[in-house]
Design goal:
The complex is a heterodimer. Helix content of chain A is about 45%, strand content about 15%. Chain A is an alpha/beta fold. The longest helix of chain A is centred in the last third of the chain and has 27 residues. The two termini of chain A are about 45 Å apart. Chain B is of the alpha/beta class. In chain B, strands 7-12-11-10-13 form a five-stranded mixed beta sheet. A four-stranded mixed beta sheet of chain B has the order 4-3-2-6. In chain B, a hairpin with a 4-residue loop joins strand 10 and strand 11. In chain B, helix 1 runs antiparallel to helix 2, helix 6 crosses helix 8 and helix 8 crosses helix 9. The termini of chain B are far apart. In chain B, about 45% of the residues are buried. The chains are: A alpha/beta, B alpha/beta.
C-alpha cells in the first residue's frame, strides 16, 4: 500500500474551540483506513460493513448513505477519497504542494496568507465565486456533498455534490422517504441517552423537530423560543398555540433585551478559522444556548436546513417554463402574484425569458455586473445577482472577481435534471451548513452539541430527490413535510402560512451599536487591504439608520470579517 | 449669494394632508393629497418637520441648522435652510402660512405586550378563500367591486378617496366581522385569475366596495411601518384589521395614518 499519498491531519484536537462533541471515528483494516468526521449515528457494525465495501471497491456510496451528517476520508491502495457531508457543515480542506496533498478540518491549519477574493465574494453576496476556496490562499474546501479523489497528491472532483431530482418520484413517495429518514434521524439521536432540548420558533422546521423529539422522550422536552417584546416578530403567538396541545413539551420563552439584539456583544465573538457568518447575532445565539444549558441540555436540536430542503424558491416557475408545464406555471404565477402583490403576467414573462438560461449565462452576467454594478439585471435566476452589495467592493476587487466569474462560466456545468430551483436549494443548504458549523463550535463552548436533522444526508436526499417544482406550493409552506407528518404534527402548525419577521431587530440592533460599527469602518482592515470602499458601506449604514431596505447580509459579513481580522492581529 | 426668489417665507406650516410617522431613525410621510409615500426622511428632516409643525417659522429652521452646523457661516446656514424649505415645499410637505394649531404626528412607539394581546386581527388563509362558497349576490358585488377598484385606483388620489367615500354611503350599517371576512374573501376569489397587479390598496378598495354594494360598511386604512420603512393599506371592522395570513401582520407592525 502506498503511504502518505495524502497526509491526513485531522486537527480536531487543535481546534480553537474546546469541548468539541463531534464524532470522529476511525476504522483500519488490511486494505486501508477510513475516518468519519461529524455526527455519525449508525452502529459500529454498519460502519465496518460500509468501510469494507469502500476500501475493497472504492465505491463510497454505502459509506455516505448511513444515518447522520458526516464527512468521510477513505485511504486505500493508490488513492484517497474525500467526501464532504451534503451541507458542508463538517468541512474538509486540502492543500497540495510538491505533489503532496494535506487535509485538515480547519482551514487555518493549512494556510496563513489571506485569500481576499474569498472574503470579497462573501461580502458581495456572490458566494458562487467562493465555492471550493477558503479564507486562505491555496487552501481549498470540499463543497457540501462533493467528492474529491486524490491520486499521487493530485485532486480530481468525481462528484459535484448536486442531488439529481427524479421526475418519476411522486410527492407521496418522497414524503414517505422523508418520514422514514427524519424519524430515524431524530430517533437515533434521542437513543444516545443525552439530555435533549430543542429550538421552537413556532415555524415549521424547529417546531416539527421538537414535536418528533418529544414523542421519543420519556419526560418533558424543554424547548426554546426567543422574542423581543418591543419588536414583535409574529412567531410567539403561533408557538404558544401549537405547543398548547402537547404536554410533553415545555416552552421556555426567552425574552430578548437590547443586549441580545443583532450587532451587540461584538467584542465577545469567538474566533473561528474563518469569519463567522452569524457573528452579528452571537449574543442572541448564546442567550438561547445558555437557556438550554440551564435546563441541562447536552444535545440541542435546531431546524437549520429546513428552509432549503423542504421548500422551493419562487424561481421554480422558470423550471416549469423550461419543461413546458404551462398550466402549473400559470397557477403558480397567479398565486405568487397574489401573495407578493405583483403582476402575474410579469412573472410568467420572467419565467419564459429565463427558461433556457444556464448557470454559465448567469456567471457571465455576474462578470459584467461586477464591472458595472448599476447594470440592470433580473433577480433570482441560477444565482441572485446582488444590487448594492457589489458597490461595497473596490474596483480592484470587483475586477478580480469579474475575471473569476468569467473563468467559472467557462467550466461550470449543472448536471442534467437539476433545475434552477433545485440548484438554489442546494446552494441554500450549503449556506446553512456554513452557519450551523459555526453554531456547533459556539455551542461546544457552552457544552452542548447542536444537531440539525434537516442537514442529515438521508433527510436531504429524501427531500431534494423530489424536483423543486413538485416540492413547491405557492402560498403554503413545506408541502413535503405537511404530507409526511399530517397525522402526527399538530394541525395548528401545518396550516400556518406566515413566517416570523425579524428584520426589525436588525435595524434596532444596528442603531444601538452605531459607535462600534462606525469605529470598525473608520479603521477598516478590509479597506486597508483594498477589499471594500468604506464610503459606500457608510452610505448603506445611513440607509439602515433611516429605516430603508438594505443589504444586511453584506453588512453582516463586513462586520464579521472586520472582527475576525482584528482577532487575527492579537 | 441667495437670490431673492429663493429667500424662504417667514411663516411655515405642515398642511393637514401631510401624515408623518416619526420613528427613531427619521420619518416616513404619506401625502393624502397626492397619495405619494415618502420613505426616507432622516433624523434631521424629521426634527425639522416637527420644528415647522410646532414653531411655524423659518427662524426656527435656521436656528436648527445653526446649532447642527456651527462651523458654517450665517449666510451658508440661511442657504441650507432655504434649500430644505424649497425641497419640502415642492413636495407639498410644508407650506407658506400659519396653521390654526399644530398637527398631531404619529409616533412609532414600541407596541406594548398588553396592546398586542388586546389587539384583534382577522387573518385569513388561502384555503379559507378557496373553500368559501359565495352567494350569487356576493359574487356579483365582488365582481363589481373588482371592476370599480381597478378603475378607482387609476384616478388621482383625492378623486379616488371621494369615489370610495361616495360608494360607502350605500352602506346601511357596519359590517360584522364575519361579513367583512366574507367580503374580503369574495374580492380575493373574483380577482384570483386577474392578469394584472392587484396589490394591497386595490384589494382593500375592492373589499370596501364589495361590502358597500351589499349594504354594509367596512373601513379602509392607510398606514406605514418602519424597519424597513413601508406603506400598506388594509380594510378594517372597527379598528380590527382584516388580512391574508400570508401578508405581513398589521398589529405590532403598522401604524394607521389615514382613514378613507
Amino acid at each position: 500500500m502506498q503511504k502518505d499519498l495524502l497526509k491526513t491531519r485531522l486537527s480536531l484536537e487543535r481546534t480553537h474551540i474546546q469541548g468539541n462533541f463531534e464524532t470522529t471515528r476511525q476504522v483500519v483494516n488490511s486494505l486501508g483506513r477510513v475516518v468519519v468526521v461529524g455526527q455519525f449515528l449508525d452502529s459500529p457494525a454498519q460502519l465496518e460493513a460500509a468501510v469494507a465495501v469502500a476500501l475493497e471497491s472504492g465505491d463510497t456510496e454505502a459509506l455516505q448513505s448511513l444515518p447522520g451528517s458526516y464527512s468521510t476520508i477513505v485511504e486505500r491502495e493508490g488513492e484517497t477519497i474525500v467526501s464532504s457531508d451534503v451541507s458542508g457543515q463538517h468541512p474538509l480542506y486540502w492543500r497540495s504542494e510538491q505533489g503532496q496533498a494535506t487535509l485538515d478540518t480547519q482551514t487555518g491549519q493549512l494556510g496563513d496568507e489571506l485569500n481576499l477574493c474569498y472574503l470579497a465574494a462573501a461580502i458581495g453576496n456572490v458566494e458562487v465565486l467562493a465555492e471550493g476556496d477558503s479564507a486562505f490562499q491555496g487552501v481549498h474546501q470540499i463543497n457540501g456533498g462533493q467528492q474529491v479523489r486524490f491520486t499521487e497528491g493530485q485532486p480530481a472532483v468525481t462528484n459535484s455534490g448536486e442531488i439529481i431530482p427524479s421526475s418519476k418520484l411522486t410527492l407521496e413517495e418522497a414524503a414517505a422517504n422523508l418520514r422514514e429518514a427524519l424519524t430515524e434521524a431524530i430517533g437515533l439521536r434521542m437513543a444516545m441517552g443525552k439530555v435533549a432540548t430543542s429550538d421552537y420558533s413556532g415555524g415549521f422546521d424547529s417546531t416539527s423537530i421538537a414535536h418528533l423529539a418529544a414523542a421519543r422522550t420519556e419526560g418533558v422536552l424543554e424547548a426554546f423560543i426567543q422574542y423581543h417584546p418591543a419588536i414583535p416578530a409574529g412567531d410567539l403567538s403561533y408557538a404558544r398555540k401549537v405547543v398548547a396541545g402537547n404536554p410533553k413539551i415545555h416552552l421556555n420563552e426567552l425574552r430578548g433585551t437590547t443586549d441580545t439584539l443583532p450587532f451587540q456583544a461584538l467584542d465577545r465573538v469567538e474566533y473561528h478559522d474563518e469569519p463567522d457568518p452569524a457573528a452579528v447575532i452571537n449574543a442572541r445565539i448564546k442567550a438561547r444556548l445558555l437557556g438550554a444549558r440551564a435546563c441541562g441540555s447536552q444535545l440541542h436540536f435546531t431546524g437549520d436546513g429546513g428552509d432549503a430542503v423542504l421548500d422551493a424558491t419562487p424561481n421554480h416557475i422558470v423550471d416549469l417554463a423550461r419543461l413546458g408545464k404551462r398550466a402549473q406555471l400559470e397557477e403558480a404565477s397567479l398565486c405568487y402574484a397574489r401573495i407578493r402583490h405583483e403582476d402575474p403576467a410579469e412573472l410568467i414573462a420572467f419565467a419564459d425569458r429565463h427558461a433556457e438560461r444556464t448557470l454559465s449565462d448567469d456567471l457571465l452576467l455576474l462578470a459584467k455586473k461586477l464591472q458595472n454594478p448599476q447594470l440592470p439585471t433580473d433577480n433570482q435566476t441560477w444565482i441572485t445577482l446582488p444590487e448594492r452589495a457589489l458597490t461595497f467592493l473596490t474596483l480592484k476587487m470587483r475586477g478580480k472577481l469579474s475575471e473569476k466569474a468569467e473563468r467559472r462560466a467557462a467550466t461550470s456545468a449543472v448536471p442534467a435534471g437539476v433545475g434552477m430551483a433545485d440548484y438554489v436549494a442546494m446552494a441554500g443548504l450549503r449556506s446553512g451548513g456554513a452557519v450551523h458549523r459555526h453554531l456547533r463550535e459556539i455551542a461546544a463552548v457552552v457544552g452542548i452539541a447542536t444537531h440539525a436533522p434537516f442537514m442529515d444526508t438521508r433527510v436531504v436526499r429524501a427531500c431534494l430527490q423530489l424536483p423543486a417544482y413538485v416540492r413547491a406550493d405557492p402560498g403554503h409552506f413545506k408541502k413535503i413535510l405537511r404530507t409526511a407528518f399530517r397525522d402526527i404534527l399538530p394541525q395548528s402548525l401545518l396550516s400556518r402560512t406566515s413566517k416570523g419577521a425579524y428584520t426589525g431587530e436588525i435595524y434596532k440592533g444596528l442603531r444601538a451599536s452605531r459607535p462600534v460599527i462606525d469605529e470598525l469602518l473608520a479603521n477598516s482592515r478590509l479597506a486597508e487591504m483594498e477589499v471594500i470602499d468604506p464610503e459606500a458601506v457608510k452610505k448603506e449604514i445611513e440607509r439602515i439608520d433611516i429605516g430603508l431596505p438594505a443589504e444586511f447580509s453584506a453588512i453582516d459579513k463586513i462586520v464579521a470579517s472586520e472582527i475576525w481580522l482584528r482577532q487575527r492581529e492579537v | 449669494m441667495v437670490s431673492r426668489e429663493s429667500v424662504p417665507p417667514e411663516q411655515l406650516y405642515v398642511p393637514d394632508h401631510v401624515h408623518p410617522l416619526i420613528h427613531d431613525g427619521g420619518a416616513v410621510i404619506l401625502n393624502s393629497e397626492t397619495g405619494e409615500c415618502h420613505k426616507g426622511l432622516n433624523r434631521e428632516g424629521s426634527a425639522l418637520l416637527r420644528i415647522v409643525n410646532e414653531e411655524g417659522s423659518i427662524e426656527a429652521v435656521i436656528d436648527y441648522f445653526q446649532a447642527a452646523y456651527p462651523e458654517l457661516t450665517e449666510k451658508n446656514v440661511t442657504t441650507l435652510a432655504g434649500l430644505w424649505v424649497k425641497g419640502m415645499s415642492e413636495r407639498g410637505l410644508i407650506a407658506e402660512g400659519v396653521a390654526s394649531s399644530p398637527n398631531t404626528f404619529a409616533i412609532a412607539t414600541p407596541f406594548t405586550e398588553e396592546e398586542l394581546l388586546q389587539a384583534g386581527d382577522i387573518a385569513m388563509t388561502l384555503s379559507d378563500i378557496e373553500n368559501l362558497t359565495l352567494t350569487p349576490q356576493e359574487r356579483q358585488a365582488a365582481t363589481d367591486g373588482l371592476a370599480d377598484a381597478l378603475e378607482f385606483i387609476e384616478l388621482p388620489f383625492q378623486e379616488m378617496v371621494v369615489k370610495i367615500r361616495q360608494a360607502r354611503l350605500l352602506a346601511e350599517r357596519e359590517a360584522t366581522e364575519k361579513e367583512a371576512k366574507r367580503d374580503m374573501a369574495a374580492i380575493h376569489q373574483v380577482s384570483a385569475r386577474y392578469m394584472g397587479r392587484f396589490a394591497c390598496l386595490g384589494v382593500a378598495i375592492g373589499a370596501v366596495l364589495t361590502s358597500a354594494y351589499l349594504g354594509r360598511s367596512v373601513g379602509l386604512k392607510l398606514g406605514a411601518k418602519t424597519d424597513p420603512n413601508a406603506f400598506h393599506a388594509w380594510p378594517t371592522v372597527g379598528t380590527t384589521p382584516i388580512r391574508l395570513e400570508t401578508d405581513e401582520a398589521i398589529i405590532g407592525q403598522y401604524y394607521p395614518l389615514f382613514d378613507i
